[in-house]
UniProtKB/TrEMBL annotation:
The chain crosses the membrane at residues 28-52, 58-77, 84-103, 109-136. Keywords: Membrane, Transmembrane, Transmembrane helix. This is Facilitated glucose transporter.
Length: 142
């Protein structure tokens, strides 16, 4: 090296540790947004669940919500190595669906109906959770 570097002062380079902190903040923000997307997916699925195709009940929102949940979990697996955190969007989705089972003011309910329509919430939970659980299981096996 010679005497080119001998006269300089030794100093700390703060930019060497900054990216790790910025990466953690970015990870927290992204996982929070994915959890919020899980809540929005549950809201949309619950309110579009009583959709009809002509005169036939057609709960396509349950299937779409499952696909969205799978995509959210897949995205979360790229931001964290923890399976619990990767499942955060689905946990928020499930919590939101559970809140919809509670009666609101004036005993308003989201999931109601007679006959075969009573099974729509069960269909929503199964179709909403199974694709996301499959993505998480695949992540755990690799």
């Amino acid at each position: 090296m010679g005497d080119r570097l001998g006269g300089g002062s030794v100093r700390q380079h703060p930019d060497l540790t900054a990216p790790a902190l910025a990466g953690d903040r970015q990870r927290v923000v992204v996982l929070t947004l994915l959890a919020l997307d899980g809540v929005l997916s549950a809201i949309a699925a619950a309110f579009f669940l009583p959709a009809y195709l002509g005169t036939v009940p057609f709960p396509i929102s349950a299937l779409l919500s499952g696909l969205v949940n799978a995509a959210l979990v897949w995205a979360a697996t790229h931001w964290t190595s923890s399976p619990g955190l990767a499942g955060l969007p689905v946990w928020c989705w499930l919590l939101t669906v559970a809140v919809f089972f509670l009666g609101g003011p004036g005993d308003d309910i989201v999931f109601g109906g007679a006959g075969a329509m009573q099974f729509r919430p069960l269909l929503l939970i199964v179709l909403g959770m199974v694709p996301a659980a499959a993505v998480l299981r695949r992540r755990l096996t690799f």
